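pasting for ref. prot 1 ->
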Amino acid sequence: MEKLLYFIFVVLTYVKHRNKLISYSRFYKQKYKRSSGYFLFMAYIYALKYSMHPLYYFYTDAYGDKEFDPNEHANSLFTYNFQKRLNNKAFIKYFSDKRLFNKYFKSYMCHKFLNLKNITLEELREWIDNIEGNSLMLKKANGLGGLGIKKIDIHKDKGVIYFNNKELKDAFISIKKHDILEEFVVQHEQINRLNPSCLNTVRIVTVIDKNNNVNIIGAVLRLGVENDVDNLSAGGIAVNIDINTGCLTGEGFKLAQSEPSTFFKHPITQVVLDAYSLPHWELLINTVKKAAKVFPQVRTIGWDLAITADGVDFIEGNHDWGIFLIEKALKRGIRKELEKYL
């Protein structure tokens, strides 16, 4: 019954994902020389049979990847139940609202931030006056997948602050449409070498087991591609990280339709990805394990972190982290691995 209800939910939300599904089916038509209708049909067959979201049918390349086993895949229904069971509903607000996350994880953050609620123009001007650098990030409190994030260039001339070449007083109303203003994080030079177009972040997933031990499920480095954000939904690529060594392993991959679909080198900087060593890795692991126990009521979190010259800077935590990203990086399903935590 639960599988059937999930399938009905997927069908009812078709409109939301319609454009992506049609685009992918057309891309697969060209790639595999079968009709786009066939791929759309199969995407929903997999949703009915395996409780896999239709988009994941394309993301996993379920048709072309003969080694893919849908029974080992932590499908959307399993993911929902897994996170619902492990994460206390009363405490997920500390991760779903970036303002609350910043407040309670302030000691894990190296960059400055400002809650824009009830802020006055003078208070904003004073805060910006005390910021070093020429870039800021505007964010929505509940933004997902890079949505609602806007990079801002600031400069000062004769005591006047300009916000994207617009006087601060004139930009104030549009600024207030966002929720948070953050200092731009300057990443470690080794990370910048991979991609300098944006802040490139590590997604690392923790699960607290029944003995209160923090376990690392997997880690991925996300790299932007000629964009202000590194999200895969914005055309970025991701690479698996060996959690024991902090080295990138294998090739990078995209969610966006592209040829090639995997990348031995970053497509812009041409830096080889496999075996590339990330700095401060031991510090990152230790810090994440410590942070995971701030709210032990939320037992599984997907953390987004920046690596800076001085160490680790927390960006956000996700109580509903996407399992697919980790599976794609590991090149295997992790359903059985996750079941032991239930």
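and prot 2 ->
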Amino acid sequence: MPALHIAMLSIFLFGCGGRGSGPGAQAPSLPVMKIERSSPVVQREYSSLLEGVVTVEVRPQVDGTLREIAIDEGAFVKRGQLLFGIDDRVYREELKSAVAARNVAKASLEVAGIEVERLRPLVKNKVVSQIQLKQAIANHRSAKASLEKAEAAVQAARINLGYTRITAPVDGYIGDIPFRIGSLVSKNQPEQLTTLTDVHEIRAYFSMSEVDFMHFRQQYPGSSIEEKLALMPPVTLLLADGSRYPLKGRLDAVSGQFDRTTASVMFRATFPNPDGVLRSGNTGKVRVPYRYENVVQVPQAGTADLQDRIFVVKVGEGNAVTRAPITVIDRSNLNYIVSGGLEEGEMIVLSGFSRLPDGAVINPQLAGEGEGFGEGKQN
């Protein structure tokens, strides 16, 4: 029957009948449901930004000209694989110079040692003074310190030479490469050569409101946030196109403080990513389950809104109806989760009650199991 005809029929039955049903008036047959308690699971969705488990900015640590770019943008590389090569000729010469200076320092140390050994018997036989031996020993110590300094210079030169070969610090995917062969690079430049992201796991960062955070703390067992995270069920990731990522994740970290401007706290969920389907910079939604134990549910279609309050129509003694406010604490699909105003065993009208006055008598028709729980108004 068209909706218009239903509305006109409702007006005829319940509007023209006045405030009540007169003697002999037939009571309207309306679908009703009996209130029962259940334990629904509510799925809440939070917009999230995805990042790899490790993101590294690859930067030069020495100055020079790019001689080689050994990888391409978007390529997967293994740890230790060559990424960039910087012209190393200057650094090879610096290493040679440092090695030569070290050899000179070694020779000076040997000469100083020989001088000490030469003076010891002379001092013993009182041929030379004790002061000359002390001076020779001091010169030997100075030569030894000079050698240590030269050794350090060799190591520094060798390290700088090694920096001309830039290798991957982790396994991962290469980002943009703004430089080309022949570009002059510097260890002080503001722009990185590229980024390298390890995405064998993906971390989804999202914000949870203060109210939801309080629900989270109340929902799960554990005396600390860490214990609650460990006992939480897996979470689901919805991709940007609305599809569901096939692998489940886990909530594993919560920020230590709330953002004062948004009154929200940052959560982190980690998802396995063995095939590299997810990349840093993707967006999605993390779906977090909340379970309510032993609560009342009513279909949203079986309620009415009036002045920021939500009402149901109860069926009382003699099948007389009366409107009653209820306290809604959450939604599960198209149902309201109710914390007050309804008790188990009570009966409510599911539809056709918009023009029923309080006290009107109906002929209740018990809805089949689950009827009315899958359709209705959506918010």
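The CA atoms of residues 63 and 186 lie 4 Å apart.
The helical segments are 3-15, 89-124, 130-162, 210-219, 225-231.
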